[in-house]
Amino acid sequence: MKPSISKIILNDFPSLFSLLSLVILWLPAVLVGLPLAFHLMISFMPAAVLIWRVLRINEFFKSGMLAEGCVERLQFVKDRARLEYSYRVGDQKFNDWCPVHRTKRTKGLRPGMPVAVLHDPHHPERSIIRDLFEAKR
């Protein structure tokens, strides 16, 4: 089971926003011909967020524990949504949420629908929905 970078960028709203920010910030800078130091300065934050999100999701796939979860609520606002879900680890129930982008996959989710959740074995309250980021087999 491996994550797909394209699925991370398409489904994870912070990743998509960071990538779009890089493009939007670099285009005018390149067209106007600003110095390289300026390009690097304006690119640091969105690049850092994008790298952090990809590495974080990869870490869940490497060392996360699988749990059965359930979609609780999906609230779309324009092209993004707040996806709330719950899952059990042992006899303890956890509720979590993630910001997602409106895609065919996220539009197909419904409250009550089962989802595969990957949670941190040392901090079970930290999790992601595996199905959103898993590469095709």
How large is the radius of gyration?
17 Å
> What would you call the shape?
elongated
**How many helices in DSSP terms?**
5
Unreliably modeled segments = none
Q: Which sheet architecture does the biggest sheet show? A: 5 strands, antiparallel
- The helix fraction, in percent, is 40-55%
- What fraction of residues sit in β-strands? 25-35%
Count of distinct strands:
5
Terminal Cα separation, in Å?
8 Å
Strand adjacency order, main sheet: 3-2-1-4-5
Reconstruct the topology from this structure:
Blueprint: H1 5-11, H2 13-32, H3 36-63, E1 65-77, E2 80-89, E3 92-101, H4 104-107, E4 114-119, E5 127-129, H5 130-133
Antiparallel strand pairs: 1-2, 1-4, 2-3, 4-5
Give an overview of the whole structure.
The protein is of the alpha+beta class. Helix content is 46%, strand content 31%. The protein has a five-stranded antiparallel β-sheet with strand order 3-2-1-4-5. Strand 1 and strand 2 form a beta hairpin. The longest helix is centred in the middle third of the chain and has 28 residues. It starts with a helix and ends with a helix. The mean pLDDT is 89.
